[in-house]
């Protein structure tokens, strides 16, 4: 069935399936195809786990204990993948060339397979306001679990109105003296349980309908965030600004191998197919993804099942 067994894989291929990105979606997809008997290579530039490594708590993950930690879940998923026979390769993918087989170009080498599943995720997008880049690392952060401890007992702001921002605000409320949650929408757009959790924190203040104008500070770091709200400009004293407003997909490596939407996310059908035979996209890099663990894993299983079906048809 697999490349090693001389099945239907294309001559010159290194594997039957290459999965790019070892977050929850990539790990789940790779595990499934490997368990089905297909030689699977999983390429990751940093380490298995993706965003799970930055999550203190996992939200909306049916069947998991409520106290499951993100890094622990990442470790468990990685162990499952390796036990299934997935080959983990540490490399940074810089390009994907459609062909027969497809070629995945990394900084350390090139890898070929008839199936490529793209699970490269997304990163927090910059606000693009004055002061943001100047104070990055000196009060401006994109990861509360990474940097929150530095702001224990201080005042911070979280920018964003969705699930990620609500999670950050809830986490920081246990460390900071006060948390200002700033978002453009009229109401918080997080899951009801998350909204209730955040709104129940006595040291969290919500600022709906608010736009960040700039971040101010001095040589020691951030000192204030300037916003517009209800037609007026307000300055709020804070020591840290945690940005979780929107996300930018890691889709540049695809080039012309798949169609992207206006924001750069990969367009797929219900089977996670991109329109290029054998190339799939799953998880947060996919257009329309809700950025939830359960959804990412669901994407992965759908894509992996279709990929296995595609490979069987090729080898028939």
Description:
The N terminus is likely disordered. This protein has 2 domains: 176 residues, FAD/NAD(P)-binding domain (3-Layer(bba) Sandwich), CATH 3.50.50; 118 residues, FAD/NAD(P)-binding domain, CATH 3.50.50.60. It is built from 6 helices and 18 strands. With 316 residues, it is an alpha/beta fold. The longest helix has 23 residues.
- Which structural category do the helix and sheet elements fall into? alpha/beta
- CATH H-level superfamily of the largest domain: FAD/NAD(P)-binding domain
Q: Rounded to an integer, what's the Rg over CA atoms?
A: 21 Å
| CATH class placement of the largest domain | Alpha Beta
So how many helices?
Answer: 6
Flag low-confidence runs: 1-9
User: Major sheet, described briefly?
Assistant: 5 strands, parallel
Net shape: elongated
The structural domain count equals 2
Q: In short, what is this structure?
A:
Helix content is 23%, strand content 27%.
List the helices and strands and how they pair.
Elements: E1 17-20, H1 24-35, E2 40-44, H2 70-84, E3 87-90, E4 93-97, E5 102-106, E6 110-113, E7 115-118, E8 122-124, E9 140-141, H3 144-147, E10 155-159, H4 163-173, E11 178-182, H5 192-199, E12 204-207, E13 210-218, E14 221-229, E15 232-237, E16 240-243, E17 247-249, E18 279-281, H6 293-315
Parallel strand pairs: 1-2, 1-7, 2-3, 7-18, 9-16, 10-11, 10-16, 11-12
Antiparallel strand pairs: 4-5, 5-6, 8-17, 13-14, 14-15
